[in-house]
Amino acid sequence: MAIPTPVNGQITDAVAPTRHRSLIAILRGVTPDEAADMARALVAAGITMIEVPLNSPEPLKSITAMKEAVGDAAMIGAGTVLTPDDVANVKAANGEFVVSPNCDTDVIKKTKELGMGSWPGVLTPTECFAAIKAGADGLKIFPASIIGAEGIKAMRAVLPKETPVYAVGGVGPDDFSVYAKAGCDGFGLGSGIFKPGMTVDDVSNAAVAYVTAHDAVFG
């Protein structure tokens, strides 16, 4: 599949990467007009999971636009999903996974009922096991900077090894190594990869930096 790549601010054709990396790009504040080009830039850089938080401008339109732009080259989902009705709306917009800042078992169950990936936000062992019991596919430790790598390491010792654990919130590329050693499988990328006002080229350059850091740690 041909995915346009930003090069010095220009869009050119390039082949989409096929490797999946354990990185979720969080595009809080992205608009529908820029969504497709941002998604293409992220995929071309090597990021294949993209989240549009629902407190962005017209997020469902952005999700639809991104999915149409990149097709099967990436999974497009929604963040800040707080209710089962939100889940249904994400599904209707062709969203493929749901991320929340909290552990709401009704949201998790609705997400799985509709055949989407579930990544609830958790911060304690109690929340982790409640999310797993409800059917979560992975855990979003948020905000990860609150408990740090040592806190995650302590929780990881009792969590199922097969459950992916992502650190989100206050974790940059320089932190990947220490969090990986603590047992994190991946990372959510927030304002370091996208803030309103950033250009496609800005996002592309940031994505390349995150991918480079990821590959240096995970190979």
Core attributes:
219 residues, two-stranded antiparallel ribbon, alpha/beta, 9-stranded parallel beta sheet, 21% strand, disordered N terminus, TIM Barrel
Detailed description of the structure:
With 219 residues, the protein is of the alpha/beta class. The chain has a single domain (2-218), classed as TIM Barrel. It is 42% helix and 21% strand. The chain contains eight helices and eleven strands. The chain has helices spanning 32-45, 59-70, 84-92, 105-113, 125-134, 144-156, 176-181, 200-218, and strands at residues 2-7, 10-15, 23-26, 49-53, 75-79, 97-99, 117-119, 121-122, 139-141, 165-168, 186-189. The protein has a nine-stranded parallel sheet. A two-stranded antiparallel ribbon has the order 1-2. Helix 1 (32-45) crosses helix 2, helix 1 (32-45) packs parallel to helix 8 (200-218) and helix 3 (84-92) runs parallel beside helix 4. The longest helix has 19 residues, at 200-218. It is globular and about 45 Å long. Mean pLDDT is 93; it is low at 1-15.
